Structures are given as C-alpha cells and as structure tokens.
Amino acid sequence: MPHREAELMILDSEQHRISNLSRRHFVAALTTASVMPLVAMEAREESLISPGSERGVLDLDHSSHAKLKTIPIGALEIRNGFWASRRTTNTAVSLPTMHDQMEHHGRFDNYRRWDGKRQAYRNDFHSNNPPGLRQGADSEVYKWLEAIAFALQSNTSPELKTTADRAISIVLGAQEPSGYLDTYFVGDKIDERMLPTTQMTGHEIYCLGHLLMAGIAYYRATGDRALLNAGIRFFDKFLIPQYGPGASQKPLLSGHPGSEMALVELYRTTSDRRYLDLAAYLLKGDERIPLERSGSVHYAHIPFTSTYMFSGIPFTSRTKLAGHAVRALYACCGAADYYLETGDPEYRKALDTLWQDLVTHKMYVTGAVGVLNGEEAFGDPYELPNERAYAESCASIGNMMWNWRLLCASGETRFADTMERVLYNGVNSGMSLDGESYCYRNPLSFDPASGTPSRKEWWNVNCCPPNLERTFASLPGYFYSTSEDGIWVHLYDNSTLNWQLTNGNGVTITQKTNYPWDGDVELTIVTAQPTEFTLYVRIPGWSKFTKANVKGAPVDDVRPATYLPIHRRWSGTETVSLHFDMTPQILAATGRVESDARRVAIQRGPLVYCMEQIDQEPAAAMDAYSIDLNGVATDRIKATYEPSLLGGVTVLRAPGQVDERTPTSSDQLYRSIEVSPARSKSATLTLIPYYAWANREPCAMQVWIPYVRRDRV
Ligand SMILES: [Zn+2]
To answer: Ligand 1: distance of its center to the CA of 392 in Å?
Structure first.
C-alpha cells in the first residue's frame, strides 16, 4: 500500500471509523460527515454571538475591570505619516508576498493534504523538500489571516478579502468531523495527538488559539463566521468534552501559552462562560500533570519544564519572568485578559510583580526581551547581552500586547510608555522597510562576520513575519481608548478618529503632526453638539518638558509620564496643541548590566538610535568609535531630517572620536596597545533610528556606544 493510502486508512479506522472505502469515497464520506452535524451547530453558534461585528483589538465593552475600553479599528484612519507608509507597505506588499511565501513553503498544502483535493507531499520538520509540515506551522496561516482581517477592518485593501476567503476555504477543508484541526497530527501522527508530551511540544491548542483570534477578527471585519465557527467546533466538539478539570476529563496543559487570550476573547465574543473557565484552568495548570516530578521532557535539547513553558503551575504563583520569552509574555497577556474580566486581585498582584521584573531587570532599551541562550528564553536579571540578544520579534509583540492590556486595566502611562517603546523600536525593527524581509532576532549589536543573517524573506519557523503583519494592521486600535468620562490619547500620528460618545453625540479628533521626527502635535476636536467630557492626553515619560495649549491658552503643570486631563465643554471646533521635548537623550544602563558598561545609548522621542558602519566617516571597525560626552553633550548632538534616507528618517550626528590603532580587521584575539601612544582623531558619529537598521548592505551595528568623558556618567 502506498504511504499516502496507509495514512488514509489510519484515518479511516481510528478517527472516523469508516472502513474499506476508496479514497474518493472517503472524501465524500468525510465531507458528508463534516457538514451534517454542523447544521445544528451553526444555529447554536449564531445565537451565541452578540450582534454587531466590529470591535477593537480587544472587545472590552463588557469587561467590568477594564478602566479603558477599546475603539474599533475602523474608527481611526492613519494617513500621511510615520505609520501610514508602514501600513500601506504591509497591505500592498507584505500580506500578498507572505501568501506566496506560504504557498511556496507548503503551508496551504498542509491543509490541502487532508481535504482530498490535492496529493500534497508530506514532510517533516527537518526536511527541506519542500519544508511544509512542522508543529505549530498552522499558526502562521492564522496570524496572516488575522492580519488581513485587521486590514479589512480599516477598509484599506478590500481585494485581500478574496485571497483570505480562498485560504479560509482551504483551512476549513481540513477540519475533521470531530472538530479536530491541526495539519501536523494527522495521518501517521494521529497516535501522537494530544498526548501529554504533545501537549508540551506540539502546539496544538496554541494553533487553535490563533485560529480563534483570526476567526474573531475576520468575523468582526466581514461578518463571516466560517473561520470562527471552525475554532468553536474544535473547542466545543473535540476539546471541552474530553479535556479539562473534571474527573471524567483528561488533563490539559498549555505547552505554548497563547490560547488563553484567545479563549477570553471568545468569551467576550460569545458570552459563553465555558471559554473563560477553560482559560482560567489553563492559567492555573492541572496538578494531575506532574511536570517537574516526572523529569522534564526534552525536545530539541530543551527541557520542557513549567518554567520553560510558563504554564502548568498557577500563574498567580509566579514572581519572575523566566523560560521561553514568547510563551511567558503570551501567558501574561492571557492572565491580563482574565483579570480584565474577573478583577481577581491575585492575578493583578502577579501581573504587577512580573511587570516590575520586566522593566527593572530583563527588558532591552528597545523594549525587546530574551537572550540567545539556546532556549529563546529570559536570562538572569541584568543579563542583557547586545550581540547575543534573542529579542525575537514575537516576544516584542507579546510585550506590546501585554502592556496594552495592563494599560486598559489601569489607565497608567507606565504601560503606554513601555508599549510605545517596544512598538517603535523592538517591534518596528522586525520588518524591513520594503516589507519583504523580516528579523527573527532583533539584536542590539551586529557583526556580519558572525554569518548570522539579520533579515530573511522566510524563516523555517516563520512565526514572526505574519505576527508583525497583524500588529501593523491592527495599529489603529491602539491609538485611543474611551472611558466613562472621556477619550484617551495614547499614540501620535497623522490620523482622524470618528467616534460617537455614549450620549450619542459625534466627535472627531484629528491629529496633525510630524511625530516622531518632531514633537509638535495638534489635535483638532470637532463635536456635532456641545459636549462635556475629558480628553486624557498622554505625556510621554521621555518628554521632560512638555508644553500644552488648549484653544491657545497654555496649560500649567504638564508633567511627564501622566495623562493630562483636559476637562471642558467641547463645542464646535477646538484645538489642543502639544509640544514634546525631542532633545536627544543619552542613556546609561545600571552598572549591573555588564554588556552596557562604559557605553551609552541615544534616544530621541520614542526612537532608540544605533550606529551602522556604512554611515561612519572615516571608515573603521565599529569598536574604534567613541562618542564624546564632554561639554553639554545633548546640545552637541544635531538632528537632521533626511527625506531620501531609509524612507525618510531624522539622523543624529554626534561628536566622537575614532581610535586609529584599532585594526579594521584582524585575526588576532588579543593585541598589545601599550607599545604605541594613543592615536585618536575627531570624528562625527552618524546615528539612524534602530528600527531602520539592516535595510542596506550588511554591516556592523551597535546601539550601545563606548564613550569618552573626563568625568564619569
Ligand atoms: Zn517569532
């Protein structure tokens, strides 16, 4: 029996109990079996979902512990500015090319293999011919679909709907009558399905979490529930009847957290409490799974402990961020979502403790996290190596999503500041300016001699590219929030918000700005009827001196890292002007960060800067340059907007020097520098925004720059 037929027979006998059928009959039977029970399901699913489709990144309308509510993505138009070009590239280039990449690399074939329409070739993780099947690969398709859904919510690229609809039909074709849907654990892998070891390493419910998020976003964009229903079927028909805390249920482990936040969002979408309860169960862990006692499962040499997976023990017992960075941050997102629904103080306490651990010990200045230590994991406190930063794009996105949820819970600027830091730097660096290649790692120092590629069009584990695409597509949802008494402004860019207050009065807020290249923002608020509310305007923590004017009158006591409340009876057209302090800032890390010792980083506005070797004159090895901090250093750093460079960036030029003794290249590990006197000459260092690195020919890069100064920083 050919291998392909053998796979089908396993399916026949073990999964669907259909025997002695030809392949054609099998497909027909599968199709019939798929459709018949779902007729009844469809009716029930319809009744579960509240009317009205479009919501924000999250739907917090009924989340009783969300201080801030989200705005629909379609309520904000971003145009002619920093993010508009990024988002246009995302929809015009990144999403279509990612479709082609996924087709080429077998991601859609993984589904076609099981819908009977195509004899797609089966592969495994380590094969390159073609590399289609891999545990967790389905999630890449779902993230890409979620990105399209967000783009459709902005109504910017309706033509993407045809592409998405075609992909969704391919996905749906592979769902089994049981509700199960995962393109890896099928055929000869069925026996591994949902095994305890598979729950740790196999990404089954992680993928289904992404299926749900894509389905919810697509439903909100189009009203089409087909993809969402597929996710609901998986949980309702396959998972919940068999797995959970009940005595008759088998235990379930969230080996790669992610489904928790999806389940909470499904609860918000359907009002079905079972999904929230399942999220809580996963966040708590099941004592019947003896993770540590049984000895760790190893996969790819990594011990799958509860620490590494950031699951399996009560989330509320955690006090440190540890283990796989994306897993940990996605778990934090799920826990924050659970808090937003329940207000459980134990969760709030754990989330606050973990956030403090993040910002005081484990986050790079770019907002990225994770160390290249073989496990894609958090390091020890202050272990923040620059060249060996792991700083995965997905981890930065997880950090952004977590801070967004904490901001929604609290309305505190510390979360908005962290969200902005990671968005503009650690996330934004992940996609090339042309939208066709991506960083998996986002190190803070780079040497092309390492042989490590910085950007690629496709990664074998291609989690980051579609994750970046969905983040840029969903960006309008992060700009504003609403609360009972007003509207909150979190992010700045040329944009218009069209909103309706709870009293029914319409309001538009238009931002006019050249942010982040300069610090002037003008907000024009137009109300259809005179309306009293508070406009909460975020004053970033990095802006030490901010000026604010309301209708031309200056506002006193504008403090950094606050939301400036502007309460008034808004009438007609009124303006609020802001001027943020864009003076370049010279940052030093605590001396405990060994990698940053005797070095500084430069930040201007929300942007962290870096040196790329290609810009430096005279040409020298990267370690030959120092920045000169004598005098009033920030006054000596000059900012120039250069429209033709890197899509238009503000370049910083700083006084410095170059050590002429440093060889441009050398095979010597050590060399004596005592035999000759120091020979340094003045040089002007050129810095570009970190997000724009690795968009020209490969060259050395550094964020943290050695400095010379007569006194110590
Ligand atoms: Zn990733």
So the answer is: 6
